Amino acid sequence: MPPSSEQTGSAPTRTQRRRGDGQWALGYREPLNKNEENKKNDDGLNVRDRIINIYAKAGFDSIDPADLRGRFRWFGLYTQRAPGIDGGRTAVLSPEELDDRYFMMRVRIDGGRLTAAQLRAVAEISRDYARDTADITDRQNIQYHWIRVEDVPAIWEKLESVGLSTTEACGDTPRVVLGCPLAGVAEDEVIDASPQIQQVHDEHIGSPLYSNLPRKFKTSIAGCSVHCVNHEINDVAFVGVRGENGEAGYDLFVGGGLATNPMFAERLGAFVRPDQVSDVWAAVTAVFRDYGFRRLRTRARIKFLIKEWGPEKFREVMEEEYLGHRLPDGPGPQLDDGVRRDHVGVHRQRDGKYYVGFAPKVGRVTGSSLVRVAEIAEAHGSDRIRTTVDQKLVVLDIDGDDTDAITADLEAEGYEVRPSVFRRQTMACTGIEFCKLAIVETKDRGAALIDELEKRLPDFDEPVSINLNGCPNSCARIQVADIGLKGQLVMDEHGEQVEGYQIHLGGGMGLNPAFGKKVRGLKSTADDLPDYIERVLRRFRDQKEEGETFAV
Ligand code: SF4
Questions:
Q1: What distance in angstroms lies between residue 476's CA and the mean position of ligand 1's atoms?
Q2: Of 300, 373, 502, 511, which has the fewest CB atoms closer than 10 Å, so is most exposed?
Q3: Tell me, what's the ipTM?
Q4: Which of these ranges, 283-292, 327-336, 345-354, 440-449, has the smallest mean pLDDT?
C-alpha cells in the first residue's frame, strides 16, 4: 500500500482526495462520517412508521438516538433547544444537554400555495398542539414549536387530510420547492410555474431515489418577473425565460447556497421546456446524489461540486449520464436592479382582481391569528393564500372595490399592508429561543428593532433589508441583505462577553449580486444595535447622491 499523504506529509493527490470525498459514482460507498453511517443503516423515510407505531405511544424516552438526532428530520422534526441555556455554552454542551423533550416541526408548503382550508388546518394545529406558535420561514414553510412526539400522528393526519405534509421538510433531502406567490396571477410573469412545482413534488418528494442525498437540497421554480424566489442562492433553480420564437420555458441554475461558504448559483446555459422540468430536476438531483462529496458535512452541498467541476462539466454529466439527451442552449433571465421582490401591498392581478401582500413582524405569527387570516380571506371571497420567501403572506383574488375593506380587516389583526420599510424588509431566523445552534436571540430583537427604527426614523423610506441570524449559519440570508447581522458573543465596553452581531454591509441579489462585506472589527452589542443602525441610515440619508439607493 502506498504511504498516505498524512504519512508523507505531502498534499493529498487528486485520487486520494476523491476517495476521501466518498463520491458514490466513483465506487466509494463506505460511510465516512456518522451522518452517512446513519443514512446507510436505515433510510430516513422509514422512521415514519416507528413514530406512529412506537414512539408516539411509548413517549420521548423510547426514541432511538439515531432516529431522534437523525431520521426525525426526514419528517421535519428537530428537538428544540432546552430553555435557559445561554449561547456561550452552546459550543461546549453535548447534543443531549441541548435537547428539549419538545420538537420543532416544519410543514412544507411547496410554492407557498395554501387554500383557506389548508391555512385553517395549519393554524388549528398550532393552536391545539404547538402552544400557538407558527413562524413563517424564509422558505415559505410554517414552523411550529413545542410539539410532543405523542401528538405527531394526529398532526400528520390533520395535515394529510388537507393535502399537506412534513415529508422531507428537513434532512439530507429535497426540501420544499419554492415558487412565486403570484404564480398564475401576476400581470408580468414569464410563465406560471405551478404545474411544474406540483409535478416535481408529486413525482419525487418522498421517493427513496432521492432520500439519501449528501446534504440538504433546495429548489426554486418560478416565472416571476422580479425573481422573488432567489434563484441565485438555491441548489437548483428554474427561472422563467423566453426561448426561441418567444417560447416560454426555463433557464437552469445550479450550485447556489449561503451558510459559511456562500456561493451564487451558476447558469448552465440550457433551455428547459416546461414538460422537461421534472426530468431535468431528477437528473440534477441524481448527479448530486452520486457525485456529491459525502466525507465532510461542510463540503457536502452541491455548490462544492459545481465549484470543482464548473458548469460545463456538470451540464455534460447531467445530460449524458442521467438525462440521456442534450438540452438546447437558451437565454439568461432578464434581471432588473433594485426591484423589490417581496409582493407586499395591494396590486392588480392580470385577471383584473387584486392581491394583497402583508407583513407580520419577522415572520412570527400565532395559530389563532392565522385562523383569522383564513376567515378574512374567505369573507372577502378568496380561497388562495400564499407564503413568501420574505416571511410574509399574500391573499389573492380580491375584488377592486374590496381592497380597502380587506386591508382594514388585516390591519386590525396586526398585519400591515403598507408597512414601514423596516417592518417590510427585516427578517430574523429562529434564534436562541428554540434553535440548538444559536448563540444569540433574534426574533424578539428583530421585532424590537423594527419598533425602535420606526420611532426614530419615521420618514425613512429607502428600501433597506436588515436580516438577523443567531449564529454563523445563514437561515435568514444575512450575506445578501443590505445590513446582515450575524449573531455572536462580543465584548461590551466593560470587557464583558455579551450577545451581539458581526455586521455585513452591502449584500444583494439581482443584476449585481454581491455578498455583504464584513468590515474588520465591525460588531455591535445587541443593546447598541438600534443606535448603530440609526447612525448608518442617517448618514446614508444625509450624504446620498441623486438616485443613489442603500442597496448595492
Ligand atoms: Fe439556528 Fe443559526 Fe439557523 Fe438561526 S441561523 S435558525 S441560530 S442555525
A1: 8
A2: 511
A3: 0.99
A4: 327-336
